[in-house]
Amino acid sequence: MDTQALEELRVLGVEIISRPELTKETLPAALDGIGILVVRSTEVTARAIEAGRHLNLIVRAGAGVNTIDVAAASARGVYVANCPGKNAIAVAELTMGLVVALDRRIVDATIDLRAGKWEKTRYAQAEGLYGRRIGVAGLGAIGREVLHRARAFGLEPYAWSRSLSSNKAQRLDVGFARTLEELAARSHVFTIHLPLDSRTRGIVNRNVLDALPDGAIVVNTARSEVMDYEALEVAIAKKGLRVGLDVFPNEPDRGTGTFEPRVLGRGLVYGTPHIGASTEQAQRAIAMETARIIRAFMTEETVPNVVNICATSPARYVVVIRMLDKVGVLANTLSVLKRHGINIEEISNTVFDGALATCTKMRVSGRPGDACLKEIAAFDEVLHVDVVSLPNLA
Ligand SMILES: NC(=O)C1=CN([C@@H]2O[C@H](COP(=O)(O)OP(=O)(O)OC[C@H]3O[C@@H](n4cnc5c(N)ncnc54)[C@H](O)[C@@H]3O)[C@@H](O)[C@H]2O)C=CC1
Ligand SMILES: O=C(O)C(=O)COP(=O)(O)O
């Protein structure tokens, strides 16, 4: 981990245990006594989350949280946070690297040269990128960085993304595709930057691949499960696609080992071992963001980048209680709320200058009745109690 980020954590008094060799299988047994787990692509299963009885926070030191059983974490009240955007430039750089390499067949030319073969005639047959169209599927942090770099190459950009409308596309000066098929049909270069979830699994399917023009360059640096790799193999043969992949089905979860993805032998297919995020710059940015998340978790009320906060809280009211800063006052008010069957969803407590008084705000699902409020107000140390209805912002 970056030395500055490590220093940040040391200042917080965090004891750091580094176990990069852990896998999906060995992680659960290693979580005993661990409060904060920082992971890259290692899978964090429900079994790991159950085994990690002391776990409060899981930080995905990267973007994609599909490797973490977020539902299992939510069910045990464990925060899951990621580092959005912090490795986007690195992935965009690799994406453009693959695009250029495929157009000019740089890898094959190098392999031939290393074997003593001067194949100028063969490798002189490149189309070139300038003036051709690039389709970006998923215009998030990485998609936008790709767009930026694609323009510098003179590629004409098109995009398809969840919240992209034709107006927004116009503002971004990018061609708008209404469907993924439409995007594919326009793309001489087609690049995928969608997260993996239940809606995107297999979304780049046979129909989408069939819509691509012959000889198109296809790049996937997102997740293998977003694309049907069997259909891809067929499309490579049928359409002469040139393909660049940084992600594969059943990737090893160790840094070194053997791995022979079948698709790599199916035509002009270049591959990298999931290194999209692996530049020093990106890793430094990720480390600093990880330290920021941990610091906020330990010292502040809100944790940044949490992906599993209840989007539609059942809380409809806020109980605001000003009280003297004395032992047991808050506990007394809570026991009254409990007796009246009021469930507290969220709570915050602020202490004011001089530490004489505090203000507690509790988000609750049911409106406390007058009797309940009177009981709270009756405590000598309670200065005031109020109930505020939350606006329906849904
Ligand atoms: N190869 C590597 O090392 C890396 C791979 N990745 C992968 O790239 C993915 C994207 O990363 P970012 O751009 O940072 O994420 P992001 O969240 O900033 O962007 C994702 C984009 O996809 C769009 N989107 C999401 N669901 C959609 C749907 N169902 N239909 C249409 N559009 C949808 C979103 O609106 C957003 O614009 C990550 O989730 C991760 O899986 C990320 C970093 C490194
Ligand atoms: O950030 C992401 O989503 C990635 O895929 C990066 O994976 P890594 O942390 O390099 O194993």
Automatic annotation (TrEMBL):
Belongs to the D-isomer specific 2-hydroxyacid dehydrogenase family. This is D-3-phosphoglycerate dehydrogenase. PROSITE patterns: ACT. It comes from Polyangium spumosum. Its EC number is 1.1.1.399, 1.1.1.95. It holds the Pfam family 2-Hacid_dh. It comes from the Bacteria. One of its GO terms (biological process) is L-serine biosynthetic process. The lineage of its organism: Bacteria, Pseudomonadati, Myxococcota, Polyangia, Polyangiales.
